[in-house]
Amino acid sequence: IELFVRAIPYNYYSLLTIVFVVGMALMGFDYGPMAKHERNAREKGDLFTEGERVANADNAPKGSTRGKVYDLLIPVIVLIVCCVIGMIYVGGFFEGVAMNCLTQGFIAMVPAMLILTFAVTLKTMTGLLGADVYVAGLMQGASTGLTNMLPAIIFLVACFLAFASGTSWGTFGILIPIVTGVFTDPTTGAIVPGAEHLIIIGVSACLAGAVMGDHCSPISDTTIGSALTQEADLGRVVRTRFPNAAVSAA
Length: 250
Prior knowledge:
250 residues; mainly alpha; flat
């Protein structure tokens, strides 16, 4: 937890993304493919810009000016209460057969267990190959330029893994054990002398890269969820989102 908290100030991608969101909202400025859609929405009232939705734009539901705070709170509260009661009911709590759900719960956890298993396997394999010892030796004897490039390499690897897998959490599970292993002495488990600060930056690069790749991935649950809630085409969501993410990443 301490390492995670200390890594926050160096998570430049996430911090810059927040700055971009606030700045672009306040200035009303956009670029790339999104600029076309924003301009059409602001000047023409066209929320769909192109495709088959244009023909049905006039029939789109209109917003209401009579909304209150409780209009938001009541559905959320009802959703939470109904979900909890529903899960308890389906689990057989009221029938005294809740123990039957243990096997189903185990099956539901298989993907998470596989991710952790693969992460441990990958970490163990690289350890047996001596990768951590090799990299630790490189860090001690390498030039300052090579050492300073390690976070950038970690960032790019995290971007690629998250984009390909569509999950930032899965990328965390795979890379964080490797990143922390790179900067620690395999014999003592202590941080390699001179790498106390670099391990924080390395973890930050891992977290930032995983989030960036997840933002741009067309198979990410957040990307798909954004497209569904916005009633937008998934491909257009990816194309309009990528330029913003790429600038922050760069």
